[in-house]
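Residues determine shape. We examine one folded chain.
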Amino acid sequence: MTKKLKTIAMIPARYEASRFPGKLMKDLEGKPVILRTYEAAVQTQLFDTVYVVTDSELIYETITGAGGHAIMSQQEHSCGSDRIAEAVADLDIDIVVNVQGDEPFTNTEDMRNVLQVFYEKDADAIDLASLMTPISKIEDIENPNNVKVIVDQASFALYFSRAPIPYRRDRDVESIYYKHKGIYAFRKQAVLDFAKLPMRMLEAAEKIEAIRYLEYGKRIKMVPSDAPAIGIDTPQDLEEARAILKNKQS
């Protein structure tokens, strides 16, 4: 029998976002975005514990005040993976899932599928796993806020970019575009290694932390998802999220 891996979720929550400051505390049908995200992760029932890890006392108090688990970062961090690495260093765990704080509609099936790869035949080759969803609208493909990913035949990531990849030089050749969905499942050692490795040129250029793993030879298993990725990067995204949640509640 395969040993059950001890699995937690960590939601890195930085208050100051460059594109949409304070977005995690914006109201989403009666609750802040970060609390909606936390509750969605808990409701999957896939984790031994769900934590929000933050540099903000306001976010910390919002989560703990609602009966949730939160950790205050002790150091300043430039990305979510570094924040998670600090938080899990002394925890007895096997897998930590990074749930993006601005994606309040994460669904149970996606979470289950991304965790399942650590129980399959190529599990030993996987340092971390993530999700991708097909996109076809040209505005989505060309939008730099949508990170695209290309994979090999075994669905391991080859590269991530804000640019449209692959580039269709021959328009008669069919191409499938995948948007990277911001959920990562790490082996604990992979995220600890990440925090010790300096940022290199490609990550600095694209501002995509997953690239650091590739640059240092880590292997990222990508899992297809048909559910649309709904992140909140702009005030317009927030309005769309409000409409979606209002529709779900009606």
Q: What stands out?
A: The chain is about 30% helix and 25% strand. The chain has one domain: 7-249. The mean pLDDT is 92.
